[in-house]
């Protein structure tokens, strides 16, 4: 039996999306069903079982499953992780409490940062110390290590993080702690800061190690249970996991470093948008991924999403840097907004309409789903405005409750604000869209970019529904809606490349770099990367450095130029970011290596189905135009090359999109919709 099929699985807050691809049969088949938040495995296994049945695929024909999870993020936000103890250098037990000694909002006297994951009484100092150059100033007190851990276990500690001073330069003391604990407490999970984040800065390194230890037991249990469920189903194939930086990694690596899965699910959407950009030849696109719980927006330039190497998790205030916990890892640079299809709408005490961030999720869900939801949501407003067909949602499997929705919208929004049915629903959508547009403008402005120069790639269950109104607010003239838009994150899992990102800190003035030492570091990183990837054949390496002017507090990543002119490359990057350069010495803070195997090129389109593509007409509300009679089209029956004008609605099983009378729509060869807004 040949193993040629691969399955991508994205567990969202409202729906679980799946995509099966079998190149041997030229088959790409989507699946979508409500998420089971109490037991995510249930929806995953039910969805895979259904995919296999619908496509006539035997479990033994599956070559691999790629999964993305929000488990790390949810565990952090809900504070449901393990009890963690921190071992640090004696005298540095207050590192997590002191943080960076800044106020994230100096105008708010009551502002409080996110609480550390490890309380002060579980942070223990250990005698022994290394100098900044790695020289041992005092030997590690091994008896103290064992004594402190014994006491931590008596306090209920379930995992240990180790973050000793200068371990980024020399990790011998941290490795010795690990070896001692492996013998004394073999079942105790231990995270070394030098393994998870070998970078300068004890606070960021310690915070990252603590977060890894905090989620490690739960993530390991989850992934092992999922692996067991797949095996019981007969799918005895490798299980890979999406990384925050947009690559995929092995099950064992994900269990060892679960902190790297922090932005696992959202990253897949940006990777999918990048694949669409490459296929369509668009140099700059704005990735717009709107699901049931949140909307994610990311910049894609040159066929790749922007990435960054630090992140703040669990922010007290989403838009205020410094209010969260720093995490040193590679992530896709995006902004996430609490505006999704399930976002609840209601007037605030001042009588102003607010939408989100509270979400109805999948249970009870929007009122329209008939699963117990009583508060109107964005999806409910979409139904009132004609964007959704109550009889065709999820291919007709979930009939939407129109009467109940109208009653809820009137009771919670229309009557309190003195609005009719259309005005209340339009207000909900307008507020949600304005929130997303404001976030997009902020994200773009931080990178000096104008939204008008981008094409908007819309996907997710709700992204295409709101693409027209968002593009209008951002003054974006081109919208791209790929086929299978409702399950694009699952597509992102399948096209993502197996990737390992490594970093080593070796601070030095650029003029005094020890290139032999740098070469040795790159050799170590390459060996580690190829070991995780399981091969050295076909691996593409990208080498870069973090540089800054001497005395500055932040760095720019610069790819190492082939001609060796690193200062010139840094100054070009600095000028592009800040419009100027400075006089003075430049220093290197860290060296980076990204190792990547080739990704997969997967065709999302399908052969047009027989029959008339036009389903009929219905009244649809369009911002600035009011309610209009719009043609309704079946995306599966559209013919490549077809050109249409709005107002029009395009429906497929997992999503739908609506475009106003000022739009021209062209159907691409793979049934992608290319929309020009006048």
Describe what this molecule looks like in 3D.
The termini are far apart. Among the domains are: 5-75 and 220-261, ATPase, nucleotide binding domain (Nucleotidyltransferase, domain 5), CATH 3.30.420; 79-215, no CATH class; 499-596, no CATH class. Strands 13, 14, 15, 20, 23, 24, 31, 34 and 35 form a 9-stranded mixed β-sheet that branches. 32% of the residues lie in helices and 27% in strands. It is built from 16 helices and 35 strands. The protein is of the alpha+beta class and 678 residues long. It is globular.
What fraction of the residues are assigned to beta strands by DSSP?
25-35%
Overall pLDDT: 91
Give the terminus-to-terminus CA distance.
Answer: 53 Å
- As residue ranges, the low-confidence spans are none
- Helix count from the secondary structure assignment: 16
Explain briefly what this protein structure is:
The protein has 678 residues and is α+β, with helices and mostly antiparallel strands. Strands 13, 14, 15, 20, 23, 24, 31, 34 and 35 form a nine-stranded mixed sheet that branches.
Explain the layout of strands and helices.
Elements: E1 5-11, E2 15-22, E3 27-34, H1 40-55, E4 62-68, H2 71-78, E5 84-89, H3 95-98, E6 123-126, E7 129-130, E8 136-138, H4 142-154, E9 159-163, H5 172-184, E10 190-192, H6 193-196, H7 202-233, E11 239-242, E12 248-249, H8 251-256, H9 264-280, E13 284-290, E14 295-301, E15 304-305, E16 307-308, E17 311-313, E18 325-327, E19 331-332, E20 334-337, E21 343-347, E22 353-359, H10 378-384, H11 402-417, H12 421-446, E23 455-459, H13 463-474, E24 478-481, H14 488-495, E25 499-509, H15 515-533, E26 540-549, E27 556-559, H16 566-578, E28 586-596, E29 614-622, E30 626-634, E31 643-645, E32 648-651, E33 656-659, E34 663-667, E35 673-677
Parallel strand pairs: 1-4, 4-11, 5-6, 5-9, 9-10, 13-23, 23-24, 30-32
Antiparallel strand pairs: 1-2, 2-3, 7-8, 11-12, 13-14, 14-15, 14-20, 16-19, 17-18, 21-22, 24-35, 25-28, 26-27, 26-28, 29-30, 31-34, 32-33, 34-35
């Amino acid at each position: 039996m040949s193993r040629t099929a691969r399955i991508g699985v994205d567990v969202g807050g409202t729906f679980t999306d799946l995509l099966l691809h079998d190149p041997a049969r030229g088959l790409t088949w989507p699946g979508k069903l409500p998420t089971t938040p109490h037991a995510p495995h249930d929806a995953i296994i039910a969805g895979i079982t259904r995919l296999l049945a619908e496509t006539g695929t035997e479990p033994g024909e599956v070559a691999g499953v790629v999964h993305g999870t929000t488990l790390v993020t949810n565990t952090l936000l809900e504070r449901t992780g393990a009890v963690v103890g921190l071992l640090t250098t004696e005298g540095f037990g207050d590192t997590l409490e002191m943080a960076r000694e800044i106020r994230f909002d100096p105008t708010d006297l009551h502002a409080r940062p996110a609480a550390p994951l490890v309380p002060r009484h579980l942070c223990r100092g250990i005698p022994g110390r290394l100098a900044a150059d790695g020289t041992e100033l005092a030997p590690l007190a091994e008896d103290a290590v064992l004594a402190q851990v014994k006491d931590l276990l008596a306090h209920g500690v379930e995992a240990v993080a180790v973050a000793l001073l200068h371990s980024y330069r020399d990790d011998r003391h941290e490795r010795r702690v690990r070896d001692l604990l492996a013998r004394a407490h073999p079942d105790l999970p231990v995270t070394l800061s030098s393994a998870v984040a070998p970078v300068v800065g004890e606070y960021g390194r310690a915070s990252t190690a603590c977060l890894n230890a905090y989620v490690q037991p739960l993530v390991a249990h989850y992934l092992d249970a999922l692996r067991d469920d797949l095996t019981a189903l007969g799918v005895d194939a490798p299980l890979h996991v999406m990384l925050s930086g947009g690559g995929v990694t092995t099950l064992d690596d994900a269990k060892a470093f679960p902190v790297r899965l922090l932005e696992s699910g959202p990253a897949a959407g940006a990777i999918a948008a990048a694949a669409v950009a490459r296929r369509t030849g668009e140099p700059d696109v704005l990735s717009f991924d709107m699901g049931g719980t949140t909307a994610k927006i990311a910049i894609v330039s040159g066929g790749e999403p922007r990435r960054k190497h630090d992140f703040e998790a669990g922010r007290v205030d989403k838009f205020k840097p410094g209010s969260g916990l720093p995490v040193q890892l590679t992530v896709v640079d995006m902004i996430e907004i609490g505006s999704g299809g399930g976002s609840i709408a209601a007037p605030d005490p001042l009588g102003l309409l607010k939408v989100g961030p509270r979400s109805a999720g999948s249970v009870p869900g929007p009122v329209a789903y008939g699963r117990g939801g009583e508060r109107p949501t964005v999806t409910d407003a979409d139904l009132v405005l004609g964007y959704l067909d109550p009889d065709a949602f999820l291919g007709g499997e979930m009939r939407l409750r129109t009467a109940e929705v109208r009653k809820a919208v009137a009771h919670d929004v229309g009557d309190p604000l003195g609005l009719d049915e259309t005005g209340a629903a339009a207000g909900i959508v307008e507020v949600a869209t304005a929130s997303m547009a404001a976030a997009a403008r902020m994200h773009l402005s931080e990178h000096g970019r104008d939204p008008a120069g981008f094409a908007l790639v819309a996907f997710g269950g709700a992204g295409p529904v709101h693409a027209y109104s968002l593009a209008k607010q951002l003054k974006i003239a081109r919208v791209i809606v790929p086929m299978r838009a409702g399950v694009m994150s699952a597509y992102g899992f399948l096209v993502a490349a197996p990737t390992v990102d490594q970093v080593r800190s070796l601070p030095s003035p650029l003029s005094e770099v020890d290139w032999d030492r740098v070469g040795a570091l790159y050799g170590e990183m390459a060996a580690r990367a190829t070991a995780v990837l399981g091969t050295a054949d076909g691996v593409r390496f990208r080498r870069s450095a973090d540089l800054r002017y001497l005395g500055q507090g932040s760095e720019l990543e610069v790819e190492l130029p082939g001609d060796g002119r690193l200062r010139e490359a840094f100054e070009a990057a600095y000028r592009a970011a800040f419009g100027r350069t400075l006089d003075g010495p430049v220093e290197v803070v860290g060296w980076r290596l990204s190792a990547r195997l080739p990704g997969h090129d997967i065709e999302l389109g399908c052969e047009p189905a027989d029959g008339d593509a036009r389903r009929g007409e219905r009244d649809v509300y369009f911002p600035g135009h009011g309610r209009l009679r719009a043609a309704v089209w079946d995306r599966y029956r559209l013919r490549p090359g077809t050109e249409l004008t709005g107002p029009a609605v395009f429906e497929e099983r997992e999503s739908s999109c609506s475009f106003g009378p000022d739009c021209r729509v062209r159907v691409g060869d793979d049934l992608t919709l290319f929309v020009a807004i006048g």
